[in-house]
Specification:
This is Xylose transport system permease protein XylH. It is found in: Cell membrane. GO terms for molecular function: transmembrane transporter activity. It is a multi-pass membrane protein. Keywords: Cell inner membrane, Cell membrane, Membrane, Sugar transport, Transmembrane, Transmembrane helix, Transport. It is a single chain. By secondary structure, the protein is mostly helical. It has a domain of 300 residues: ABC transporter involved in vitamin B12 uptake, BtuC. It contains 18 helices and two strands. The chain has a two-stranded antiparallel ribbon.
């Protein structure tokens, strides 16, 4: 019986010729800022609405709050917007405002510094004792006091960054220790008066040009011109690098808004005593520190560490140095703020830096828009926030509200700011922008 075997020959595999069509090239990413600017005014309005809905409130609540505060107390007193009262507010905000600038740096790391009131007190005590009792040159006394503040900050930063002690514990210990040192430096007298007509005395009482109105207008016009020049140069530089740049229409609008504010401020100040030196120093420090945070690699490192320590470390950032340096800056700013408070009250005493100085400074930074959770904020927050705090305090004083009630109202405003910050962060996370 024969069997026919059929050999199955496998057909050779057919290879498809490679497609001659080129692979699709992904569309280049478009910067959303370009889309906004190309749409003109409608684009900016839509972008503003989107930011509000996603929780990016910026300075809007603070500005609205200032307008509301001014309107309420002006209606109650009739003289809240008086030129002398507004000038006094610009003087009173400087001391705690400078402390708040230092707190902004610490908050950007997501940390807190509870010792800054005591640092302000001990620095003022050192300057007062050296200049008034020991006869040391005032400028040298100021430098020694500021150096002491920076050294204290370095010590706090070392224990926090190198040893690993929580910042809350380190600075709480500092609050007690430096308060004790302040009392020890002042001794049995308990106070050290400023030198009459000296450098420290002039810090809070000197008006540029002895009240000459031309000086105020010169500073206002110079500030507007420098802002415009900076905006134009930045726009040209970014355009040359192929980066999104602000159009001249936006630059003109920004400059116009600043001009209105500067001209109104100059007019009001000239109705009183002219341009106060403390306000010039405060604004100068805010501008410089804002530049450091936004325009330097060191500032970007601070935001990076505040955003995530491990990610910052893997990016090659010296996390320990950033942490130590931030505490040095905050303590140095507290020392400078202490000198202005000393000048304002005419002496350094055991109570300087105590009470609500620290709480008002922290509240100013938070109310101004700096997040308690780190990674978000600017030094302009300190200026806006302390304006809110001092406006409330001044207004309540004008209507003769008890100080206990003032503390309660300030605490409520601080709580509202923190709640707003928390809700804002939650909204940004839910919209994919957190």
């Amino acid at each position: 019986m024969s069997t026919n075997k059929t050999e199955a020959t496998a057909a050779p595999a057919v290879k498809e010729a490679p497609s001659q069509e080129p692979a699709a090239t992904p569309a280049p990413a478009v910067d959303p800022r370009l889309l906004v600017r190309e749409a003109g005014l409608a684009g900016y309005v839509a972008d503003f609405k989107r930011k509000i809905k996603s929780g990016e409130l910026g300075s809007v609540p603070v500005v609205l709050g200032l307008i509301l505060i001014a309107a309420i107390f002006q209606s109650l007193t009739g003289n809240f917007l008086n030129a002398d009262n507004l000038t006094n507010i610009t003087l009173w905000i400087v001391g705690p405002g400078l402390i708040a600038v230092g707190i902004v740096f610490v908050l950007l790391l997501g940390e807190i510094d509870l010792s800054l009131g005591s640092v302000a007190g001990v620095s003022a005590a050192i300057a007062g004792v050296l200049s008034a009792r020991q006869g040391v040159n005032e400028w040298l006394s100021i430098l020694i006091a500021l150096a002491a503040g920076v050294a204290i900050g370095a010590l706090h930063g070392f224990f926090f960054a190198k040893i690993g002690v929580p910042a809350f514990v380190v600075t709480l210990a500092g609050l007690l220790a430096w308060s004790g040192l302040q009392q020890s430096v002042l001794g049995d007298k308990g106070t050290a008066n400023v030198v009459n007509n000296g450098v420290i005395a002039d810090l809070d009482h000197y008006f540029l040009g002895d009240g000459d109105i031309a000086i105020t207008w010169i500073f206002a016009v110079a500030g507007i011109a420098l802002f415009l020049a900076g905006q134009v140069l930045d726009s040209r530089r970014r355009s040359a690098a192929g980066l999104p740049a602000r159009p001249m229409s936006e630059i003109g609008l920004r400059t116009g808004v600043l001009a209105l504010i500067a001209i109104a401020a100059a007019y009001m100040l000239n109705q009183s005593r002219g341009l106060p030196l403390p306000l010039v120093i405060f604004l100068g420090i805010v501008i410089v520190t804002d530049f450091v945070l936004r325009r330097t690699s060191y500032g970007r490192q601070i935001f990076a560490v505040g955003g995530g320590i491990e990610a910052a470390r893997r990016a090659g950032i010296n996390v320990a140095w950033v942490r130590i340096s931030v505490f040095m800056i905050s303590a140095g700013m507290a020392a400078l703020g202490g000198l202005f408070i000393m000048s304002q009250q005419g002496s350094a005493d055991k109570a300087l830096g105590s009470g609500n100085v620290l709480m008002n400074s922290i509240a100013a930074a938070v109310i101004g828009g700096t997040s308690l959770f780190g990674g978000r904020g600017k030094t302009w927050s300190a200026l806006l926030g302390i304006l809110v705090i001092q406006s409330i305090i001044t207004g309540l004083d004008l209507v003769h509200v008890d100080q206990a009630i003032q503390y309660m109202i300030t605490g409520a405003v601080l709580l509202a700011a923190v709640v707003l910050d928390s809700v804002s962060r939650r909204t940004q996370k839910s919209s994919g922008r957190g």
